[in-house]
Amino acid sequence: MFKKLINFSIKMFIRFFPSEKPLLFTGADSIIKLASLVRNSGHKHPMLITGKTLLKSGRLNEVLEHFKAIGCDVTVFDGIPPNPTYEVIDDGLKVCI
């Protein structure tokens, strides 16, 4: 009985407070479009969260350069391992704050 009440409550919450649909960028230069959207939204200090491999490969250099060119000071947190723990998330929050 209690489980049914919980399930019903969750369904009602979702119905009355739907989540926003995610904004999806695809294709060539999609990451540049995303960076421009971040800046145009008034954010000047975004935080880029990534794994060490992607950062070391140089694949993010173009994105970081674009952020710099449009006046953003990016903080990079590259301490994300596969299957991160809550401790890793806390570390990221410390960098953000």
The total beta strand count reads 2
User: Strand count, sense and closure of the main sheet?
Assistant: 2 strands, parallel
Helical content (DSSP H or I, runs of 4+): 40-55%
Order of helices and strands: HHEHHEH
Distance between the termini: 43 Å
Mean pLDDT: 86
Which spans of ≥5 residues are poorly predicted at pLDDT below 50?
none
Major β-sheet strand ordering: 1-2
Coarse morphology: extended
Strand content: 5-15%
* Rg measurement, Å: 18 Å
Can you count the helices? 5
- Structural class based on helices, strands and sheet pairing: mainly alpha
Kindly summarize this structure in a few lines.
This protein has helices at residues 2-16, 30-40, 52-56, 61-69, 86-96; strands at residues 47-49, 75-77. It has 97 residues and is mainly alpha-helical. It has a two-stranded parallel sheet with strand order 1-2.
Task: Write structural notes for this entry.
The radius of gyration is 18 Å and the shape is extended. The chain is 53% helix and 6% strand. The protein has 97 residues and is mostly helical. α2 packs parallel to α4. It has a two-stranded parallel sheet with strand order 1-2.
